[in-house]
Amino acid sequence: MEIRYLRLIKAIVEEGGITRAMDVLHLSQSALSYQLKEAELQVGTQLFYRRNKKLILTPVGKKLYNSAIKILAEVDRTDEEIKRMVNGESGVIRVSTECYTSYHWLPAVLKKFNGEFPNVKIEIVFEATHHPVENLVSGNLDIAITSNLEQTDQVDFIKLFSDEMLAVVSKSHPWAKRSFIEAEDFQDVDLIIHSLPLETVSIFRSELIPKGINPKKIIVLPLTEASIELVKANLGVIVMANWALRPYLDKSIKTIKVTANGFQRQQYVARMKDRKYPMYFDYFIKFLREEIKLDAEP
Question: Which segments constitute the HTH lysR-type domain (predicted)?
Answer without folding.
Answer: 1-58
